[in-house]
Amino acid sequence: MIGRVNHIAIAVPDLSSATATYRDTLGAKVSQPQPLREHGVTVVFVELANTKVELLEPLGETSPIAAFLEKNPAGGMHHICYEVDDILAARDRLQAAGARILGDGTPKLGAHGKPVVFLHPKDFTGTLVELEQV
Amino acid sequence: MIGRVNHIAIAVPDLSSATATYRDTLGAKVSQPQPLREHGVTVVFVELANTKVELLEPLGETSPIAAFLEKNPAGGMHHICYEVDDILAARDRLQAAGARILGDGTPKLGAHGKPVVFLHPKDFTGTLVELEQV
Fold first, then answer.
1. Of the residues B54, B83, B130, B132, which is catalytic?
2. Is residue B130 annotated as a catalytic residue, yes or no?
3. How many CB atoms are located within 10 Å of the residue B108 CB?
4. What is d(CA B87, CA B93) in angstroms, rounded to the nearest whole number?
5. ipTM
6. Burial of B96 (0-12, 13-18, 19+ CB in 10 A)
7. Looking at the DSSP assignment, which residues form a beta bridge with residue B42?
8. Helix/strand/coil for A9
9. What are the VOC domain coordinates in residue numbering (chains A, B) (predicted)?
10. Which of A57, A83, A130, A132 is catalytic?
11. Helix (H, G, I), strand (E, B) or coil at B97
C-alpha cells in the first residue's frame, strides 16, 4: 500500500539556525522558508536526491508541533510521510485493521495541498505516520 | 555534500510485531530479520520505492539502542542516514565546521558493511545523523 517516502519532518526550535546547518554544514539544497499559517508551521524544504526533509518551526499560538518541542527543546524527528495512491482506500484499510486515524478520520489538505491523514503513533511503533495521496 | 537518504531507522521493542505492522497494516515489502551481533541490533528492512526504513530491535546486553528504548518504550524514529561519496572528506568538513563526530571520529563499518560515522544530535537539530559512504 505505502509507496515512496514523501518526506521526513524534523521539528526545530530555530528554523534559521536549522536551515544553516543543513545548507552550510551538511551541504544540502534548501528552500526559502514558507509560512503555512493554516498548518501552524513555517517550513524549509531540504531537497535530497531521492526524497526530502522538511524542517518545521512553530507558527502562531496553537502550532501542532508546540507540544513536541516542549518535550524535545532541541528539536527532533517529528513524523514520516508515505505516499499512497488512494487516501480513502488507505484510511478504510487501516481502520479495518484496527489502526487509529487522528482527528475524525476525514482526510485534510496537507502542506502540499494534497489530501493527508495522520496515524496514531501508538499503533505504529511510536512513530507519527502521515499518509499523503499523490 | 549529503546525497540520498539511505534509510530512516526506527527503534522498536518488538521486532516481530513492528514487522507485522509494516507488512500487513501498511502493506510494505519487508525482509527477514537479520541479527547483526557486532552492531547490537536485529534489523528488518522495509523496502520502499525510493529509500528504506530499518526496524531495529536490541540484540545482546549492550545494544546501542537500549537507552533510547528506555526513554521511548513504544519505540520511535532513532536516526536518519544520508549517503556521502567520501566519508573522510565529509568527516573533515564537519569537524572543521565545529560539528561533533561520535566516538573517536574514525569511520566504522556500518550495518551494510560500508564506512559510517554518526554525528552528535545536539549539532543537528536534536536528530542523530548517520553518514554512510556508498
1. B130
2. yes
3. 14
4. 10
5. 0.96
6. exposed
7. B35, B57
8. strand
9. 4-134
10. A130
11. coil
B48 CA: distance to closest CA in chain A (Å): 6
Q: Which of B12, B93, B126 sits opposite A125 (nearest CB)?
A: B12
**Type of residue at B91:** R
Q: Which residue has the cell 544553516?
A: A20
Q: Where are the beta strands (DSSP E) in A1-134?
A: 5-11, 29-30, 34-36, 41-47, 52-58, 76-84, 108-109, 115-119, 129-133
Alpha helices in chain B (DSSP H): 15-20, 66-71, 87-96
Task: Provide the CATH number for the domain formed by A5-133 in this structure.
Answer: 3.10.180.10
Domain boundaries defined on chain A: 5-133
Question: A71 CB contacts (<8 Å, ≥6 apart)?
Answer: none
3-state SS class at A46: strand
**Residue-wise pLDDT tens digits, B59-109:** 998 999 999 999 999 999 999 999 999 999 999 999 999 999 999 999 999
